[in-house]
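Q: I have 75 residues here and want to know how they pack in 3D. Can you give me a structure?
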Amino acid sequence: MKNEFRNRIKGYIAAAFGLVAGLAWNEAIRSSIEYIFPLDKNSIWAKFIYAILLTIVLVIVTIYINRILSDDEKE
């Protein structure tokens, strides 16, 4: 039980670090998009396009990672 608790804490800490890194990348990507496509900062269309593109990319990356991890489990 103690080992499981430690493993969960490690996972939560790693997830927190991932969140911080994700927020930093989010700001960098948003700034890049605003630089390349100079739209009004409050443009709702730009925000929807950004959200849709980011969702598509993250789904593809998640599928790819799941395939890699499931291949490792089979070996």
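Q: Anything worth noting?
A: DSSP finds two helices and no strands in the chain. Residues 1-38 form one domain.
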